[in-house]
Amino acid sequence: MITAADFQDLLDRLGEDLESWPVPQRQAAAELLRQSGEARAMLDQAGLLRRALASEPVRAGAALTERIMRGIQPDPAPAAEPPQSLRSRV
Question: Region Disordered: what ranges (predicted)?
């Protein structure tokens, strides 16, 4: 039998479709799932994550995009003061 940590590692590497797992790991996972609510929750979370990643991305509206872009633009450099030698002549 595998541990919950081993099961999480397999989920991370192989995904939540147990049918695609190699037979020995699939059998061990099925046994763990029958006995462990924690493992069932891990499997549910893996499915939720896959569906979230597969969904359409959320797009920001044009106004929001413009505000964000303005916010990341560097401020224009302040006018440089003339060197000390030139200031005394003015």
Answer: 70-90
Kindly compute the dihedral angle of the four CA atoms of residues 37, 38, 40, 41, in this order, to the nearest 10 degrees: 120
- CA 19, chain centre distance (Å): 25
Q: Rounded to an integer, what distance in angstroms lies between the CA atom of residue 55 and that of residue 82?
A: 57
Distances (CA, A) of 85 to 6, 32, 49, 80, 89: 72, 81, 65, 14, 7
Which amino acid is located at 34 in the chain?
R
Tell me which DSSP letter residue 36 carries: -
Q: How close are the terminal C-alpha atoms of the chain, in Å?
A: 86
Reduced to 3 states (helix: H, G, I; strand: E, B; else coil), residue 89 is: coil
The answer to whether the pTM exceeds 0.85 is no
**Which pLDDT tens digit goes with each residue over 26-74?**
999 999 999 999 999 999 999 999 998 898 888 888 999 888 888 887 7
